[in-house]
Amino acid sequence: MARLLLLLGAAMVLLASAATAQDCLSATFSGGRTFGKCNSMPTLSASLHWTYHPENGTADVAFRAPSDTSGWVGWGINPTSGNSMVGSSVFIASQDSSGVVSVLMTYLETTSQPALTNNTFKFNVPIGPAAEYSDGAYTIYATVELPGNSTQQYTVWQAGPTSNGAIAQHPLSPSNRASTQSLDFLSGSSTAASNSKLHRRNIHGLLNAIAWGILIPIGAIIARYLRVFESADPAWFYLHIVCQCSGYILGVAGWGLGLKLGSESAGITYKPHRNLGIAIFSLATLQVFALLLRPDKKNKYRLYWNIYHHSVGYSVIVLSAINIFKGLDILQPASGYKTAYIVILATLGGIALCLEAITWPIAIRKRRRNAADKAAVGNGNGWQQGA
Ligand SMILES: *[C@@H]1O[C@H](CO)[C@@H](O)[C@H](O)[C@H]1NC(C)=O
Ligand SMILES: *[C@@H]1O[C@H](CO)[C@@H](O)[C@H](O)[C@H]1NC(C)=O
Ligand SMILES: *[C@@H]1O[C@H](CO)[C@@H](O)[C@H](O)[C@H]1NC(C)=O
């Protein structure tokens, strides 16, 4: 089981990073511009593309980040300290109501309401800047002289709304707070700002996605379809129990971590995500305890227990999928993760549909035979009333 989990986790991370790397490598730019290296940032679905020139210590960069037309995006370098917007010189792209994009080059002297005075950079920008908006994303182009002629720089990026055409404060979500990283323009390697909270949020997300989003649906698929095959009895039952129990244990760990993260984040609460999480946990716990109250197969109440067990189980799966998307919207990891989850969901759905088509005729045949047996012997044991 541990191996299967590891495999599932690895598959999810691989899928996500493949999709993310693809995002960054497959990007194309206007005016025939090309860049030698690229980096998909860990937050806000942003990416940086650049070509470094060691001869003169400059880098041609393109920063791309999604935004709606009423938003702004920014990227810059902090020559003095990591993990901080104060002290950064940043390019900020926004557009007016007629769609004309302009770039502001400003030094950030404070976190609360910086003056945003144009042309106050603390390092040289030999060429540019220029910016454009297309396909729901801004791209900012510039050639920067890397401060201190060093290839290792602290970079910052951000996205936010405008208010009456003016740059307004960006949201304070975890991803907006964690959008800094140290980047080596020569090797391309990056180190996200050490942010243990973001790290724990990612673990919370991964645990819950694997538990509630993968293991529990697989367990339900096993119970619904495998038991139709006589040869799979009682193996399907044990597989079902193993999937649901390990899903529940992992899921409770992920849920507990979520509650802890929630209690630490004073000021910002994600109410719908939190409440859905609590509802899912309660329903799933009910499922576990209901096992103890399961009437015997021949008991006349078993049919009602089955109806209850199925409806609560399917509700947990649907609510979990909704809540995983809510969590992804809060965390805004690199866009590959959402894609990976959608691919997994579609795959599970596709498998269920195929099995539905395969098992229907078998189930009907079995039911007919059972009915015939019942008529002949006067003693039935319908498969649909199995565990
Ligand atoms: C930057 O450093 C490189 C050597 O690493 C040197 O060749 C280049 O002239 C320097 N550029 C500037 C602008 O100082
Ligand atoms: C820096 O050097 C590169 C490669 O030699 C050259 O193409 C580019 O124009 C130079 N940039 C500046 C600002 O001098
Ligand atoms: C900042 O100043 C430059 C000219 O120095 C101008 O081209 C640019 O549009 C200004 N940016 C904004 C947002 O006004």
TrEMBL record:
For binding heme b, which residues are annotated in this chain's numbering?
204, 240, 273, 309
All copies of domain Cytochrome b561, residue ranges? 166-364
Q: Which residues form the signal peptide?
A: 1-21
Q: Name one GO cellular component term.
A: membrane
PROSITE patterns assigned: CYTOCHROME_B561, DOMON
What this chain does, per the entry, is described as: May act as a catecholamine-responsive trans-membrane electron transporter.
What sections of the protein cross the membrane? 203-223, 235-256, 276-293, 305-325, 340-364
Q: Which organism is it from?
A: Sorghum bicolor (Sorghum)
What range(s) does the DOMON domain occupy? 44-160
Membrane topology per the record?
Answer: Multi-pass membrane protein
UniProt cross-references to SMART domains, sorted A to Z: B561
According to its UniProt record, where is this protein located? Membrane
Cofactor(s), by name: heme b
Record note on cofactor: Binds 2 heme b groups non-covalently.
One Gene Ontology term of the molecular function aspect: metal ion binding
**Gene3D superfamilies in the record:** 1.20.120.1770
Is this entry keyworded Transmembrane helix? yes
UniProtKB keywords: Electron transport, Iron, Membrane, Metal-binding, Signal, Transmembrane, Transmembrane helix, Transport
Write the protein's name. Answer: Cytochrome b561 and DOMON domain-containing protein
